[in-house]
Amino acid sequence: MSHYYWHGGLRNDPSFKITLERNPETGAPLCSQPTISRMENLPDTRTLIRMCREMVRFYCQSFPRASGQIVLDIDDTFDAVHGYQQLRLFNAFYDEYGFQPIVVFDGDGRLVGALLRPARRPKGAESAAHIRRLIREIRKHWPRTEILLRADSHYCTPEVLDLCDSLGLRYVFGLSRNSRLAENILPLEASTAARYACCPGQKLRRFRTFSYAARSWSKPRRVIARVEVSPKGRDTRYIVTNLERGRGKHLYEKIYSARGQAENHIKAWKAHLASDRTSCSKANANQMRLMLHGCAYWIWWTLRAACPKRSPWRRAQFDTLRLQLVKLAATIVERKTRIIVTLPASCPRQGLLRFLFDALAPPRPA
Fold it and tell me: Is 322 part of any domain?
């Protein structure tokens, strides 16, 4: 599509013109590809900070009313680069140069923010600073909303844990294994392995909750261990939380494991919307691209959320929605007083399209 745009095809696309409130035939062409490149390089750091704040405001305003509780999934993802962009860094794990932006989604898949950064694991002070700024912006709009943070083990740092306690945040973080943690569950691991040996076949999973304090922590915290024995062997994982209620099994399987859905959101953002095309030489321009791809993500998320409840379209991937609902042949005719858009009569999604037209239509003036 980028080559098509370069040669001017999309500049005169009638559907794009209608989207931008221009007449499809007599309206002026849209901006050219060089103009878009200049626009990407236009914002400075202060402007990008304001745009990030506006993204949080847009997220809060996407709810009909202030939410009583939200769940935020924080993760980072590797973005390979092949040039000499600012902030690029060699990552030994991926054996490539790239970025590693921090991305935040809520429990329903709404994008809350994206921050471009070098390709290294964020340290505790950096993660805490990012979380502090994010929570401050959210609470400007929702001062009484309860916030639950979920993240994997490299966000479980003393700085982040103390920040969550000071800000009144609830959290469920993964916890890296060590010898002191293993000492607390040696009997459980042995008994679980013995039970599995008696009835091999299906995996056996058991849990234990105990109090634990690392040397760098300011106080003991609740830790939940999950011990699993299967034909593939023994596997033990840990999480740490300040949630006082709930059994360990529920907190691990229903609360913490649900954060895996954030990986699918990142996949949709990168694979289906090409958010990893950060090829500009300047870091500000690449951060601007992340913002633009974030806007594209919101468009597709809104379309999917408008689909009928309990329908498979509510779980469809963005590329499926694009192929089934957007890439349709249509005839667009501009009249003197109106614009006529004619869709094919044989379209198999007519009912769904009519439903979406009504659901996404702007409110009529009173």
Answer: no
